[in-house]
Design goal:
Blueprint (H helix, E strand, L loop, with lengths): L1 H13 L9 H20 L4 H27 L2
Helix pairs in contact: 2-3
């Protein structure tokens, strides 16, 4: 277990990451996805919190990827 943790720490130290992890596009996607997921989860078995969590994750990831792709196309 110690080797695994040391490997993860070394990888995160060596690998470069994006300076701004939570972009405005990602937060907007998470909010819209969370709201939609909550409504869908509530209407299909009263699982509002589970639906909101899944929707927020998918919304943040999808909007983050889409925002990055649009920015790359526009040269921003």
């Amino acid at each position: 277990m110690k080797k695994f943790i040391a490997t993860i720490l070394a990888a995160t130290t060596v690998c470069s990451t994006q300076a701004q992890f939570f972009t405005p596009e990602g937060l907007t996607g998470a909010a819209i996805g969370g709201l939609a997921g909550a409504v869908i989860g509530h209407n299909s078995g009263r699982k509002t919190a589970e639906g909101a969590g899944i929707g927020a994750g998918i919304g943040a990831g999808g909007q983050g990827v889409a925002g990055h792709a649009v920015g790359a196309c526009l040269g921003a």
